[in-house]
Amino acid sequence: MAFGCASPPDVTTGSVAGGYRLSSSEMGWHCGGLENALNARLATVVSLSQQAKAKAEGTAPTVSEVLNRLFGQSAENDPLQSQIKAERAAADAYNASLAAKGCPRVDIDGKLAASGVGRAV
């Protein structure tokens, strides 16, 4: 997986593995617009990842969260994790679109690692 994107987009639908489908307006964006949108999604991934880390390290505010932690249930059902996955899928789709248009790709994993998040999703 080079530069954080698993597969090129389907040029007719803008869809990539991971589930994000570019809108028709997004598919019309050129290099600068795609890169700006990708960077905005990465900023959101960083913010959400920091929130998830703080939540995991903090005290559990609800009985449900206490029970989940006590019995070792995964954070996969956590709304923050779902949002992180969705933002990452969008960033991957933008990156694939960059490549399909002949634009330089963004090293998503490198940017996330540099921000202290590491590989998110």
Which tags fit this structure?
elongated, disordered N terminus, 121 residues, mainly alpha
Strand content: under 5%
Order of helical and strand elements = HHHHH
Total number of beta strands:
0
Helix proportion range: 55-70%
Cα-atom Rg, whole angstroms?
16 Å
Average per-residue pLDDT, rounded, comes to 80
User: Which structural class do the helices and strands define?
Assistant: mainly alpha
What can you tell me about this protein's structure?
The protein is mainly alpha-helical. The chain has one domain. The chain is 56% helix and 0% strand. The protein is built from five helices and no strands. The chain has helices spanning 24-27, 31-57, 63-70, 79-100, 108-114. Helix 2 (31-57) runs antiparallel to helix 4 (79-100). The relative contact order is 0.24.
Briefly characterize the structure.
The chain is an all-alpha fold and 121 residues long.
Map the helices and strands:
Layout: H1 24-27, H2 31-57, H3 63-70, H4 79-100, H5 108-114
